[in-house]
Automatic annotation (TrEMBL), chain A:
Signal sequence annotation: 1-21
Comp. bias regions, Polar residues: 399-411
Organism, as annotated: Winogradskya humida
Positions of region (Disordered): 399-418
Organismal lineage: Bacteria, Bacillati, Actinomycetota, Actinomycetes, Micromonosporales
Domain of life (superkingdom): Bacteria
SUPFAM superfamilies: Periplasmic binding protein-like II (SSF53850)
InterPro entries: Bact_solute-bd_prot1, SBP
Keywords: Signal
Keyword Transcription: no
Any matching Pfam family: SBP_bac_8
Protein name (Swiss-Prot/TrEMBL): ABC transporter substrate-binding protein
Coiled-coil intervals: none
Entry annotated with the keyword Signal: yes
From TrEMBL, chain B:
The name this protein goes by in its record: Sugar ABC transporter permease
Keyword line: Cell membrane, Membrane, Transmembrane, Transmembrane helix, Transport
Main location: membrane
Cross-referenced CDD domains: TM_PBP2
Length: 418, 304
């Protein structure tokens, strides 16, 4: 008994002392050159890896995929601690400015490909001292994906031109159609997925978003930010939202169970839908976005300086983002190229996707991309998006009124940007 | 001749130190050094992304923490989840151990079985439970629906999220504590029970008057250990959120201190502030562990 007590005290003391420390882990590699590619969501590279590996027998490619927020937080941590990052790291539009601020951590990819890219896409990953830290993969563009069958059941027009025309006047019209849908909605479905996702689409159309071009946060003062908020709140209060949080497991499940009839649809969202809603092939369709234009997301491939195989990684990143591969990735996955020369190629501009009821996605998205007015993104864009999403979730969960939640959101954003 | 003499003396005098040295070396490297270094960092304004750029600010991080409403919120959540998980956990463990102490069929199998939740990956456990607590298609809401109770959005409100997280913690640690109780129950001399039986004591009286007092050191041990573990909970609330944002829900309704520390360190990259949180948490745990130690010691000795 005395021994047990002594043991208890000793163990407790040790645990107490170690309670304040923490550790991390990392992995190594060997043999032929293994390139670790760390991504989020779905970049659709599996086929391309095989092609690359058979052309380069000494290269093996290993992909690691994490959820959107996890991925970017991990990358920042790995950069900060100097180890653990992949040889190639994907970075989303929402986080590229944060990475741009610590540009010395990335390999300079040079300026030889500048003329290929959309100017704003190229500019967004350029550091102050002119280093290029990322090869652009895709741009988001913006459309609305919708379920034809659910529209029909709710007695709404299902034809894509009619749908586009119905909300061509702007988001107010979208809400109006939503109210009509909700009045006769098939059981267990809502008009759209969740407030956060809708918000990203609406603010993506504004000329100025969360930042002014001198890197100042303007969330509290930019009327566009508040207008978009009010619009989404109105949609939530009209019961149009399925109240699913973007990129959560429940949201993924929502595709499979058909919990919502429309979703704001950047080109990369089509890849997501194809992944998650396989059983609804042919029932989805794509219409133009209310108000026209806008962008949400799009990504880059970067090569962190801490990697062991920088030259090989750079070569692979350049290959994966080369025009030929971007074109393939559009027809196989729906990811819209960031290389405008491709937009007029018949295999792209004329592409129709059978999954989306043969919608002319090529024409739809390339037109949108050409009209797109780029919005300046600052260092904390991604985290500000998440903060605003949480604010909207508080309203969806009935925890706060719009004003209470807005005030808390603004002070959270201020804290974030401090 | 002096050589063997010296080595023999070194052997008896020196070797004990040699034997305990590995522990102290490891403890120094992985326990003491991080602890002291974290203390140093906590007095600096230290941005994790700026390659270790830092500036001495004295106690500024601590005074900011003291006025930070999100810290007090996290402290409240931590204590609530800790109480909700620890108290039922230890009582259940005691009861399970009592049952396992009887002659049962497949006794070894059952005894090992209670440890299974503990060796399952915490991530797997949390993901499964998070699905069970799902709002739209979760099993628990389905069961509640059968009894006519409307679906609960487990993540949305404070109490429901705390309850769900506590369930995960309880599921994981009850068996572990039960085994520890069982081990020391078996060390209780059997003649005590025989004597009590002769005096006409019921099974419950035996449990209360013999088992619990004899388990006193073990109860102290498990209480202290559960305090240390319970106040450091992080993985469960992080994964419970689904999107793994470290804010612990839309309104920080289930953000624990450890999660708050993680948010400040690895989302805000405020290494100094996060270190100050780490040290404050360490002190809070020390205070709670000592208080618990004193309390459990008194309660158990009252029984004698």
């Amino acid at each position: 008994m005395r021994f047990l007590r002594a043991l208890a005290t000793a163990t407790a003391a040790t645990l107490l002392l170690t309670a304040c420390g923490s550790g991390g882990d990392e992995s190594g590699d060997g043999g032929t050159v293994t390139l670790n590619v760390s991504l989020f969501g779905n970049f659709g590279y599996q086929e391309l890896y095989k092609q690359y590996e058979s052309a380069h027998p000494n290269i093996k490619i290993k992909e690691h995929t994490a959820a959107y927020n996890d991925h970017h937080r991990d990358l920042a941590t790995h950069l900060a601690t100097g180890s653990g990052a992949g040889d190639i790291e994907g970075v989303d539009m929402g986080f590229i400015a944060q990475m741009r601020e610590v540009g010395q951590q990335f390999t300079d990819l040079g300026t030889d490909r500048q003329s290929e890219y959309l100017p704003w896409k190229w500019q967004a990953s350029l550091t102050k001292d002119g280093k290029q830290i990322g090869y652009g993969t895709d741009v988001g563009g913006l459309a609305i994906c919708y379920r034809r069958d659910l529209f029909q059941q709710a007695g709404l027009p299902a034809d894509r031109d009619a749908v586009s025309a119905a909300w061509a006047g702007g988001w107010d019209k979208y809400l109006e159609l939503g109210k009509q849908y909700t009045a006769k909605a098939p059981k267990g479905t809502a008009f759209f997925d969740g407030g956060g996702a809708l918000y990203n689409a609406v603010i993506g159309q504004a000329p100025e978003g969360f930042y002014s071009t001198d890197n100042t946060v303007v969330v509290a003062t930019n009327p566009e930010v508040r207008n978009a908020w009010n619009l989404v709140v109105q949609a939530i209060q009209s019961n149009l939202s399925a109240k699913l949080i973007e990129s959560s497991p429940e949201w993924n499940n929502g595709f499979a169970k058909g919990q919502f009839a429309t979703i704001a649809c950047p080109a990369w969202m089509m890849a997501k839908i194809k992944d998650q809603a396989k059983s609804f092939a042919g029932k989805w369709d794509v219409a133009a976005v209310p108000g026209g234009g806008g962008n949400w997301g799009g990504s880059y491939l970067t090569v962190p300086q801490q990697g062991k195989h920088i030259a090989e990684a750079k070569e692979l990143a350049a290959w994966l983002t080369a025009p030929e591969q971007q074109a393939k990735n559009f027809t196989s996955q729906g990811l819209l190229p960031s290389i405008p020369a491709l937009y007029d190629k018949p295999e792209i501009a004329g592409y129709k996707d059978p999954f989306f009821n043969n919608a002319p996605v090529g024409k739809l998205f390339t037109t949108a991309a050409k009209e797109l007015k780029p919005q300046y993104q600052g260092p904390r864009t991604g985290d500000i998006q998440t903060t605003i999403r949480d604010g909207l979730v508080r309203i969806e969960q009935g925890k706060q009124t719009s004003d209470q939640s807005w005030q808390q959101t603004v002070s959270d954003v201020e804290r974030l940007a401090k | 001749m002096a050589m063997p003499h010296l080595s023999a003396r070194l052997d008896t005098k020196g070797s004990p130190y040699l034997y305990v040295l590995p522990f102290f070396l490891l403890f120094g490297a992985f326990g003491l050094f991080p602890l002291v270094y974290t203390g140093y960092v906590s007095f600096n304004d230290w941005n994790l992304l700026d390659a270790g750029e830092h500036q001495w600010v004295g106690l500024a991080n601590y005074s900011e923490l003291f006025h930070d409403s999100y810290f007090w919120n996290a402290l409240g959540n931590t204590l609530s989840i800790w109480v909700l998980s620890t108290v039922p956990q230890l009582l259940a463990a005691l009861w399970i151990a009592h049952l396992l102490n009887h002659r049962l069929r497949a006794r070894t199998g059952l005894r090992m079985g209670v440890l299974l939740p503990n060796i399952t990956s915490i991530v797997a456990v949390t993901i499964v439970f998070t699905q069970m607590f799902g709002r739209d298609f979760g099993m628990i809401n389905w069961l509640l629906g059968l009894t006519g109770i409307g679906p609960v959005d487990w993540q949305a409100s404070t109490w429901s999220s705390h309850l769900a997280i506590s369930t995960i913690v309880m599921w994981r640690w009850t068996g572990y504590n039960a085994l520890i109780y069982l081990a020391s129950m078996q060390a209780i001399p059997h003649d005590l029970y025989e004597a009590a039986e002769l005096d006409g004591a019921s099974s419950f009286q035996q449990f209360r008057r013999i088992t619990v007092p004899m388990l006193r050191p073990t109860i102290i041990f498990t209480t202290v250990i559960s305090t240390i573990g319970g106040l450091q909970i992080m993985a469960e609330p992080l994964l419970f959120a689904g999107t793994s944002t470290p804010t612990g829900g839309s309104d920080r309704q289930f953000q624990t201190i450890a999660l708050f520390m993680y948010e400040q360190g690895f989302r805000e990259f405020r290494f100094g502030y996060a270190s100050a949180i780490a040290w404050t948490l360490c002190l809070i745990i020390a205070v709670f562990a000592i208080v618990n130690f004193l309390l459990t010691r008194r309660i158990a000795s009252d029984e004698k």
